[in-house]
Amino acid sequence: MMNTLLQDVRYAVRSLAKSPAFTAVAVLTLALGIGANTAIFSAVNALLLKPLPYPGSDRLVQIMSTGFRGVHFGVSLPDLHDLRGLSQDFAGVGATATQRYNLTGTGDPREVQVAAVTADLFDVLQVHPEIGHGFTAAEERSPFALVSHGLWVTSFGRDPGILGRSISLDGRSFTVVGVMPAGFQFPNEDVQVWTPIGEFLSQNPQAETNRGMHFLPAVARLAPGVALERAVGDVKLLGARLSAADSGAGGGRRRIVAEQASPGRGSPAPSAGGRSILDSGFDVTLLRDTAIGDVSRRLLILLGAVALVLLIACANAANLLLARATGRRREMAVRRALGAGRGRLVRQLLTESTLLALAASLVGVVLSTWGLHTLLAVWPHALPRTAEIGLDGRVLAFSLALAVLTGVAFGILPAWRASAPGIEQTLREDAPGATGGRRRLQSTLVVGEVSLALVLLVGAGLLVRSLIRLNEVNPGFDTRDVLAARIRLTPARYPAAAQQTLFFENMLAALATHPGVQSASLTGTLPLSGNMFMYAFDPRTVRPNYPEPIMVLRSSSVSPDYFTTFRIPIRRGRGFTAQDRAGAPPVAVINRATADQLWPGQDPIGKQLTLGGPGRAGGPMTIVGLIDNLRSASLDATPQPEIYWPALSGMREMWVALRSSNGRPLQLVGAIRDAVHQADPEQSIGDIVSLEQLIGRQTAARRFNTTLLTIFALLAVGLALVGIYGVTAYAVTQRTRELGIRMALGARGGDVVRLLMRESLRRVAVGVGLGLVAALGVTRALSALLFEVAPRDAVTFAGTALLLVAVALVATWVPARRATQVDPMVALRYE
């Protein structure tokens, strides 16, 4: 058996080597399809199939508190103790809180993200330091630190003597006790240092007993034999029991204050005394699902798209084999006459097609690696965990299996037809009669190619139209020529509010006089970079304790030039001035959504409202300005109620925003660094980003999906074009005698062209019709990815259908036109 197989392989190699043009075209055609599938599967493998890099990661869950509009917050420390009491459900429960710190003593000052962790977190994850040791319960209040492998390499040169060294975080000294393994990224890829949770609690002592401080995303490991459903039920029961107990005591414990909290970042949601406003509970999800977010739908859609591309490539390859079989009829007849059975011939031909597919797989793997890495380099924020996407044993096995399956899929029909009984008789027949069945099969394959190509083209068209609509959205502020940088002052160096205010005012004054700066301002929340929520209260009904809110709105403290920098027009009233400082009557600017909810049909100027949290309602603020609704959260989100108040004092962390006067905002990076370091050489700078870059980050996933689906659609159209061209050209070759007779009897060139184009367009019309019907069903899956475009958008369906018909006309006209250049006398002597 093995000898026969080797004989088939050797014969297939010789046969393919005799037709280098055919082999190259077939390999390239299949490589495009197999490569596209390999690229997308590598992402699916890394994000959906591979477990997280923690032992038994399928048993890890994240526990969060839920609040207003489904916004997730961490749990409080008392919550964490209660969750640890569910020992029948969890083998361990740990938690972490992230903050940004100023790292000094390792070169230039820089901002790093630090995770304060409970001592048992690494035991829950079952990951331990590569060098040194983790934290014990007795060390939870010690100034110890673990550093990431990357920080150890870049800042300490892989020094094996790093243990015991000190690093400075916000001016406080921490002793390095270990280095985490390479690739360890928890709770996110930006964390570079881990400290015991006690260091965080020492700065926030109220967090130890205040159930209203929800700042700890909890991670738990399911106990052996415990199903997720049981744990979810017990956690929800715990939340209900605690809520009922506190409500009976007048507490209202399970409610969350969303004051100054960023969704999804585990930021604190402080309240006074644990009382709050909005009923909430616990949410338990697999840690893996939290890590990948909503990427599953997008990847599965792309995987379906590349499957269609591969089917089209297989149809093209099958057409190539059918055409090649015509020239091998004599070879097959001779082998049948010498005693070869049909099974033997089919096996030989399938060996050839499989070799083609395997060669295409090698080329496809190279193309997929290069192509996917290029796209992810352009849109690094399009997918999570991009560092894990690449070739591994599973991806290579997938590519190999796909090659074998593809070789059989596109080779079986041509092999079966080429080895059909009675092939000896076909040698004595005219070409048309001998190839009529083959032409019908080729036509059927072309119809399938056109149908699949149209489905992809419609899907790509919908996404392209959605992206165009998104780019046309007016956010309400001018995103061009604005550069922003986040500055977080070190508490040890700037403990007092007056010191913080003075630093920012001096820095802003220096930047405002820079020749490249048109205007400069400060803001607590940069548009398109996150949300900060606060509660609004009616000052006429505020009670001394536990006031009831009237709404939740997005809020930010800003300097007087903020609206000028972002070119946000004040529609009524005024903006802020230098007189709106600490000690002056509190004022605020709101958007129309806020005015419409609080004072519908009334002039909001002069109205008053109060901001704050439960038990922390401030004094009344007078509305002095009204602006239009902004899309501050994201371009594709409905505008929400917003309020702005003057940045007065206590500004430990702010964004400085500069509008460039010469249209080159990135040239102002040096100006920001100079201004900060002149004020304080030890002060680090956080993110520096332009507003257009922020938009790019927000739309990266949409652009990535749209670009990939468009590439796949164009690839499908190109393959369909080649298929239509090949079938028409093959028909011209096989009907040379017939066409010569027609021309000898008086048919003109135009008549011949119309004849061939009518036949081709009939195939295309059937394919377009079937494709439109299929697209009507398939595009429903895209609805979640569309923006202001219906899944059955008539313009997209009609436009893509016309485009495909036009492409088919070109693909048919070229070989049809060539048929008119044949001399009738030569055609009559054909064969």
Set down the secondary structure blueprint.
Blueprint: H1 2-17, H2 20-49, E1 60-66, E2 72-73, H3 77-84, E3 90-104, E4 110-117, H4 121-125, E5 131-132, E6 144-147, H5 149-156, E7 166-169, E8 172-179, E9 191-196, H6 197-203, E10 218-222, H7 228-248, E11 255-256, E12 278-279, E13 281-286, H8 287-292, H9 295-327, H10 329-337, H11 342-378, H12 393-418, H13 423-426, H14 431-471, E14 482-488, H15 497-512, E15 517-523, E16 533-537, E17 551-558, H16 562-565, E18 570-573, E19 587-591, H17 592-598, E20 608-612, E21 621-627, E22 642-646, E23 653-660, H18 669-679, E24 688-690, H19 691-698, H20 700-734, H21 736-744, H22 749-778, H23 794-819, H24 824-828
Parallel strand pairs: 4-9, 6-8, 17-22, 19-21
Antiparallel strand pairs: 1-2, 1-10, 1-13, 3-4, 3-7, 3-10, 5-8, 6-9, 7-8, 11-12, 14-23, 14-24, 15-23, 16-17, 16-20, 18-21, 19-22, 20-21
What does this molecule look like?
The chain is built from 24 helices and 24 strands. Helix 1 (2-17) packs across helix 11, helix 9 packs antiparallel against helix 14 (431-471) and helix 14 (431-471) packs antiparallel against helix 20. The strands form four sheets. A six-stranded mixed beta barrel has the order 3-4-9-6-8-7. A six-stranded mixed barrel has the order 16-17-22-19-21-20. Strands 15-23-14-24 form a four-stranded antiparallel β-sheet. 48% of the residues lie in helices and 16% in strands. The chain has 831 residues and is α+β, with helices and mostly antiparallel strands. A hairpin with a 5-residue loop joins strand 3 and strand 4. The protein is globular, with a radius of gyration of 34 Å.
